[in-house]
Design brief:
heterodimer; A: 6-stranded mixed beta sheet; 5-stranded antiparallel beta sheet; globular; B: mainly beta; 7-stranded mixed beta sheet
């Protein structure tokens, strides 16, 4: 079993809809949680960074961490075609630790 | 800054040949990471350097893989001999002051071994 599980999708939504993405993990030591966005044939870029449990909002993006359930989520409001990309979750146990990535979920926002 | 620069962008080689991938990190960054991305295994960390010194190479799959960082502005990942199962996209990333900060990724090298 992988340490980080993420549904690869694809997830197709109409423009303006809310995109809901999630990852589950098995290592209770994970404390740092990140979401990366990767456009086709590009490198990943950091989207959201959260330490421990709770919510974090940045514009149209909201990241949630529920450590009791070992579950993290990313919500994209008012989705745009430009949000079409693969979204990868990543996490680690301490600030100097190795990042464990999920497989990535492909999102397609149709006009 | 131009960001992390990787070369070549694409590489097609025959099984058994030596392959060298190159990376120029962002100026001033002191951490450099090499990742491999495949459909089957996702994104995996191969090795990372701090101030040009290899810190953790536990992700390097086999002795056929080696990485060097001769100075702060250049790193190589070498595969010798290459095999078809090495086909993947290889990313280099760099960060400032450690793994706790944002790592900036290059555009990757798409390697195909036939």
């Amino acid at each position: 079993q992988k340490e980080v599980e993420q549904d690869p999708g694809p997830l197709s939504v109409p423009e303006g809809a809310i995109v809901s993405l999630n990852c589950t993990y098995s290592n209770s030591a994970f404390q740092y949680f990140m979401w990366y966005r990767q456009y086709s044939r590009k490198g990943p870029e950091l989207l959201m960074y959260t330490y421990s449990s709770g919510n974090k909002e940045d514009g149209r993006f909201t990241a949630q961490v529920d450590k009791s359930s070992k579950y993290i989520s990313l919500f994209i409001r008012d989705s745009q075609p430009s949000d079409s990309a693969t979204y990868l979750c990543a996490m680690k146990a301490d600030s100097w630790g190795k990042l464990q990535f999920g497989a990535g979920t492909q999102v397609v926002v149709t006009p | 800054d131009a960001g992390v620069i990787q070369s070549p962008r694409h590489e097609v080689t025959e099984m058994g040949q030596e392959v060298t991938l190159r990376c120029k990190p962002i100026s001033g960054h002191d951490y450099l990471f090499w990742y491999r991305q495949t459909m089957m295994r996702g994104l995996e960390l191969l090795i990372y350097f701090n101030n040009n010194v290899p810190i953790d190479d536990s992700g390097m799959p086999e002795d056929r893989f080696s990485a060097k960082m001769p100075n702060a502005s250049f790193s190589t990942l070498k595969i010798q001999p290459s095999e078809p199962r090495d086909s993947a996209v290889y990313f280099c990333a760099s960060s400032f002051r450690g793994t706790n900060t944002e790592a900036f990724f290059g555009q990757g090298t798409r390697l195909t071994v036939v």
